[in-house]
Structure formats: C-alpha cells, structure tokens
Structure to design on (228 residues):
C-alpha cells in the first residue's frame, strides 16, 4: 500500500532554515509527480509546491518562491522541501502528497502523508 | 489568482442529503477535486476530476461542476461523514484550495 512518511519538522527560529523529507513506498515513486501542502493551526489547506516525476518541472506558491526549494531523489524514493528564511507565517503542518500522474500541472493528490509540524518561533 | 469560495459550515440531519458548494470564476472550465479531513487526520481524496469517485469512497459521495460552481453531494449522510471538506482546482500552474466547509451531522 502507498505510504508517505514525512520527517524533519521541529521548532526553528525566524530567518533560519529547515529541510523536510518524505519517504515514499508502495508505488513506483519515479513515475509520479509529488506535492507539498501545508496547513496552519486551525486553518485550511495551502498548496506549497509541486515537482514532476523526473524533477524537470517545479512550481511554487507565490509566498514561498525564492525561499523554498522542492527536490526529489528517485533512487531513494524521497521527496524534499528545503525551507530558507523561515517566517512565523510558515508555521504549519506540512504534508507531502502523491500526484495522480507524472506531470506537475493539473495533477491532484491521491495519497497524503501524516504531516510534519514546523513551528517558526524565537 | 483564482479564489475558490466555500460556505464555512453546512449542517445536515442523518440520512438527508448534504450539498457543499465551491465557487470560482469559470470554475466549470477546470477540473475540481474534493478532499475530506477529519480532526487530527490527513486529508483524503473523495472526488477527483469533478465527478470521479476513488476506490473505497462510498457511492453516497458525488460531484458536479458547471458554470462558476462545483458541488459535492453526500446522499444519505452518515455521522461518520462529519468532517471538513476542501475543494481544489488548478489556476495558472498553481493549485488553489477553497477555504473549507465544516459539515456537521446533527
């Protein structure tokens, strides 16, 4: 069965960096796009970024462009989100989600991880 | 950007039909998906591409999309359907979510 396990969350000071990982299993990772979606405490879902199956296409929400980088290692079936210059408003549970297709754009999320909490606070 | 508007809350009696709307400019020209999220859990896809129900999702869940409004319909609503529901679409290479609707089964 499909499993997505996020790790790397924690408490970090404003302006610092953090990298999240998402270990995938139960499907052919290299054949699917992957997303990061976040949810601030008590709030709705906010899409963060997407990467195509081969890593050639990447798209970001406006508020994280230039600060966050999505990447993947298909040999390790692992998705990453490098987060730099973190702000208090980046505090959220970060979910990795599997896309339904190879593509980045127009895909939807057919499986989600359990989430990793990132708290940005001094 | 394309905003998607959902009612903050919808209430329904057990066994009745619940309808949750998602509105956006020319939304009918895009594919809409719906996700269910119960407290403390990750979201679950319940409807993809406007009307498709993934394997394992009960038949009482259905979707439609036309004009400026997409609708998630739950027929014969059960207590276990009480959750937050989010619509989702693509706009200019970015994903947009609706603000979410809390479904209460009274």
């Amino acid at each position: 069965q499909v499993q997505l396990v996020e790790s790397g969350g924690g408490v970090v000071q404003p302006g610092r960096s953090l990298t999240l990982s998402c270990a995938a299993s139960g499907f052919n990772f290299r054949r699917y796009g992957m997303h990061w979606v976040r949810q601030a405490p008590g709030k709705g879902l906010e899409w963060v970024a997407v990467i195509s199956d081969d890593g050639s296409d990447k798209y970001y929400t406006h508020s994280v462009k230039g600060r966050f980088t999505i990447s993947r290692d298909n040999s390790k079936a692992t998705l990453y989100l490098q987060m730099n210059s973190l702000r208090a408003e980046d505090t959220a549970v970060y979910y990795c989600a599997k896309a339904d297709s190879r593509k980045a754009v127009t895909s939807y999320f057919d499986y989600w991880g359990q989430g990793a909490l990132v708290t940005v606070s001094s | 950007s394309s905003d998607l508007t959902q009612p903050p809350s919808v209430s329904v009696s057990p066994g009745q039909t619940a309808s949750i709307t998602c509105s956006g400019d020319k939304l009918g020209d895009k594919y809409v998906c719906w996700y269910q999220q119960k407290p403390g859990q990750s979201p679950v896809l319940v409807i993809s591409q406007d009307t498709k129900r993934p394997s394992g999702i009960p038949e009482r869940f259905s979707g439609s999309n036309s004009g400026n409004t997409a609708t998630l319909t739950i027929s014969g609503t059960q207590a276990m359907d009480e959750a937050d529901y989010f619509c989702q679409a693509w706009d200019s290479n970015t994903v947009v979510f609706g603000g979410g609707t809390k479904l209460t089964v009274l």
Q: What stands out?
A: The two ends of chain A are 40 Å apart (CA to CA). The longest strand of chain A covers residues 18-25. The CA atoms of residues 72 and 79 of chain A lie 4 Å apart. The mean pLDDT of chain A is 96.
